[in-house]
Design goal:
3-stranded antiparallel β-sheet, alpha+beta, 15 helices
Length: 404
């Protein structure tokens, strides 16, 4: 047997072992068990225990979990509608469809015990969103590593293609998502439950605010990710949900590749946003995930915060100063948010930005706190002086024999 055939046999054996491991997640009983629902309720309540609805659920958690299990086994519809609201984020209006906590527990259970381990097992390594030990910081590190790799091979003689999708969540077709379920699952009850969570958002699209939507979104165009990495042999490729990049040495090849990808994305119901999709030379600078990147002549990667985020933070702090002056917000809450923002700047080359922002913070809040403290001390001194005078007068009256 040749060396190549041995390697092929070894890989086929590994694939069969992976399939056997994934079989354990094709079980509705594992999702609907008391233990799974109880653990899911505990995990779903993290960070939101201050809400009254969550507290009411946790007060009678065993009763609620057993009732949910009974409803699931009787094929009862556990969906309770959405709590809809709008968030204005960076000039965009995002329609959030949040589910009730009782339904969130079931979503957490199906994600932990079925969807997440199965749908994420064959994702590419550079798919960086909504996975354990991954996130925006991981995506930034991968892009930085790809830029270093490209510079070591080709220098700065290359281009980066930045791809952005138009209304990614709202345009995902349900039939493709359900077809993806049936590649891995055969349990009819499990498939029906997963389909119900998808059908809750209407005829097309997935809603923001559900954990199932996040997992379905990262796995939706996974086949195209493998096509770019394996068929096109492009090493420097990464994706964070609906934002992706490709680094290559030829502009014309990137243009042809973009035309090819546009057709592939259309077959998955996804449309490219042509206003935000660009090909930029590596000799200049570009923005990815709200960070401004540039490569120097020596190959060093400079990461600076996007100007829009700096302006937004300054405006936010000035609005918070007004709220603090009116007594509608505490300085402790302001400090918590400001510390979090500084933590996000640590991984960027932003020493001067942080220094200037700290000066603004001190001008807006520290001086006001010092003035309040000095006024409090003066009032305390005055009160202490009055108390001493009253005590002296009382002692004098006692010595003279007057009643007090």
């Amino acid at each position: 047997m040749s060396r190549r055939s041995k390697r092929c046999e070894r890989r086929n054996k590994q694939r069969l072992e992976k399939k056997k491991k994934l079989k354990q997640y094709d079980d509705f009983e594992k999702v609907a068990s008391i233990k799974s629902l109880y653990n899911s309720a505990k995990k779903a309540s993290k960070g939101v225990k201050w809400k009254a609805s969550v507290q009411r659920y946790l007060l009678s958690i065993l009763f609620k979990v057993s009732r949910t299990r009974k409803d699931l086994l009787n094929n009862k519809d556990i969906r309770g509608g959405f709590i809809e609201f709008v968030i204005n984020e960076r000039g965009k209006s995002r329609n959030i469809k949040s589910v009730h906590f009782n339904e969130r527990v079931v979503q957490k259970s199906i994600c932990l015990n079925a969807l997440y381990p199965v749908l994420t097992h064959n994702l590419i390594y550079d798919n960086c969103a909504s996975q354990k030990s991954k996130g925006t910081h991981f995506a930034s590190k991968r892009l930085e590593k790809h830029l270093h790799w490209f510079f070591n091979h080709y220098g700065r003689n290359g281009y980066i293609l930045l791809i952005d999708f138009k209304k990614y969540f709202e345009s995902i077709p349900h039939d493709i998502v359900k077809r993806n379920f049936r590649k891995f699952f055969t349990d009819e009850k499990l498939l029906k439950l997963a389909d119900d969570f998808v059908n809750a958002f209407g005829e097309c699209g997935l809603g923001l605010g559900s954990e199932t939507s996040q997992i379905n979104a990262i796995a939706h165009i996974n086949d195209i990710d493998h096509y770019i990495k394996e068929r096109k042999r492009i090493h420097c490729y990464g994706r964070y949900m609906d934002d992706s990049y490709i680094i290559y040495q030829d502009r014309e090849c990137l243009r042809r590749l973009l035309d090819n990808l546009e057709e592939l994305y259309k077959s998955y119901g996804v449309t490219i946003n042509k206003n935000k999709t660009k090909i930029i030379p590596l000799t200049g600078s570009f923005t990815y995930l709200k960070t401004r990147y540039s490569v120097t002549e020596t190959g060093k990667v400079i990461k600076k915060p996007c100007r829009d985020s700096i302006v937004r933070q300054r405006k936010r702090m000035k609005r918070q100063a007004i709220l603090v002056s009116k007594g509608l917000m505490s300085t402790a809450d302001v400090q918590t948010g400001f510390t979090s923002w500084i933590g996000s700047m640590i991984h960027r080359h932003s020493r001067k930005t942080v220094f200037n922002m700290k000066n603004l913070y001190n001008d807006l809040f520290k001086k006001g706190v010092q003035n309040d403290t000095s006024n409090f001390r003066n009032e305390t001194k005055q009160d202490t002086g009055v108390c001493r005078l009253a005590a002296a007068a009382k002692q004098c009256n006692t010595e003279k024999g007057f009643r007090t």
